[in-house]
Each structure stands twice: as structure tokens, then as C-alpha cells.
Amino acid sequence: MGWTLLILLVVLTVVHGNPTVTVRSGSGPTVGFNRHPNSVPLGEDTQTTTEEESEVVEEVMMTGVLNPSHYPARRAATVVQHYLNTRYGSPYRWLFLSTVNSGSAEDVADKGRKYQLELTMQETISNVSGQCSAELLFPGGEGQNAPQVQVSCEGLCQSNTTAQEEAFYQQHRASNNLASGSNIPGRYRATNTHTTDPPPPPISLLTVMFVVSLTDGYGHMEPSMKPFWQLGGVASSFIMLRESNESTLYNMAQVANFTQLETEKDQLRFNYHVLLHEMISQEIIHWKLLVTWSPEQGVQVLQTELQPKCHHCEAPPSTTN
């Protein structure tokens, strides 16, 4: 009798097996009050189950009240961040998303999906925060059309950056030495990113060009380089706003390099090579930009060029300010 019971238990174990446990990851890193929006933890595990992928797709199509901490609300709010930077950004004013307070989404017939958002935005240098109400429309239909954004804010852009911007402008407008640098912030080996270009050459001093070492190799940067980093971030917002849709979530991961060009029509001019992190696909995408700036005219992106993919490249390290 004892042997019969033992054999029966073994058979039941083989037939039924152990219970399956599905462990689902969270909805991704939240952009916090003290965390820079482009501080992207690229080394985190991004593998998900097929069930979770289906869940994310369903979340994108949700209507009604949204969970502020989930991807649909955060994706839409980040688009508002990019829009504000294209309107108000400068080397000394870079806006980022602090908190999504509330949000809702609805389908609009023949137009697309409309989001209503209540947000807290923050400036990187002054840490001044403001409350914003935004309406965002992701156009429907075929083709890639930029989102349409309407936003009003209270308490934002109150810090006076005029003196800093004017000093920066006069310094680099009158200088005979054109600024240049690479790998802001942190150094990396260009071996799983989105370009076939070789890694930037070692930083050096040239006769007619002043090149400053930007970082210490651990993600920190010299204070004098922060305006160039922030200008690159603001310029990248023009690309990220244009490329955004309901299936993307963009941040700038790194300025691979920049070079100042000769001033024209009182505009400082720069060639930028930036690395954008698309957090849903975990893809690192390289763009080259021709950027101009002056206190009077603001930031303008005159030319953009998507770089070809590189399948043997390695993503840059996490950003540390």
C-alpha cells in the first residue's frame, strides 16, 4: 500500500508540474524631482514577457482617466516637455518633466487621440517648478506627423537668465578660438548604437580651435561645458518632438560631439552629433544637427541628418550630472 501511494504521488507531480509564476517588471523609471530627464539607466534589464508586451499595447490604446505613472501618460507628457524646450529653451534654460499629476485620453474621430494633462515642469539650473495644463493630439492616419501641442504654465521660466546668456553669447561671439568637445557626459566605446561613424578622436588642443576636456571619464562634466550640453538637449527636442508618437518615448542620452562654426548674422552656429535614447525599443539613435542660437533669436535647428544604423555598437553609460 505504501509503495502504491508513493508511485501515485510521483505520477501526479509529473503530470501537473509546478505552478507557473509570472513576474512583471514595472512601467519603467519615473522621472523624479532630483533626476535629470536624460539620465537614462541604459544598463537596466529591459526584457519583458509576451504577455507584458500585449499589456503595454493595450495601455497605449486606453481612453478615459490615465494612471499618471504609466507609459501612456508619461509618453504624452514628455512630448509636452520637448515642445516647451523648442519654445523657451536656451543654453541656460532646459525644461524637464518633474511629475504627471493627472491625465486622460480620448479618441477624436478622423483626427487621432487627444490627451489632457496636468503636469509639473522644472528648470534644470534654477530648479524652479511650474504647473502646466496641456492638450496634446497625436494625429491619426498613415505617415508620421508631429504631435500638436497646446500648453499654458504658471510659475515656469521665472528665473532671470539674461546676464548668463549675454555673457556666454559675447564670450563665444567675440572669441577667436572656436569651442569644440565630445562625449558629454561620460566617455564610451562606440561599439551598439546607430551610426557607422568611428568614435570621436581624442580631445586635444589645436592652433585655431579651443577644445576642452568635457568629463572625467565617470559621467561628470566641467561646469563650463554644461551650457553646450543643455543647448544640445534643447536642440534635440526639435527632433524628439517631430519624431514622437504614441509608441515612442525619447530622451537625449549624450552629446557625442559638437563643434562651433563661424558666427553668421550675429548667430552662434554649432554642428552637433547627439545620441537619442528611444526607451520603448531601447534603441540608441544618432542625429547630426546644425544649430544656431542668440539671446534675441533663441535656438533654431536649421538642418537635421539621421545617421545610419550601427549593429556592432555599444550604448553609452548612464548619465550622471
Automatic annotation (TrEMBL):
Region (Disordered), start-end ranges: 26-50
Matches recorded under Gene3D superfamilies: 3.10.450.10
Pfam family name, one: LXN
Chain ranges of the Cystatin LXN-type domain: 62-161, 210-318
Entry GO CC: extracellular space
Molecular-function GO terms, alphabetical: metalloendopeptidase inhibitor activity
Listed InterPro entries: CYSTATIN_LXN, Cystatin_sf, Latexin
PROSITE patterns: CYSTATIN_LXN
Keyword Transmembrane helix assigned: no
Keywords for the protein's UniProt record, in alphabetical order: Protease inhibitor, Repeat, Signal
Signal peptide (residue range): 1-17
Family indicated by similarity: Belongs to the protease inhibitor I47 (latexin) family.
Annotated protein name in UniProt: Latexin
Organism annotation: Salmo trutta
Gene responsible for this protein: LOC115162953
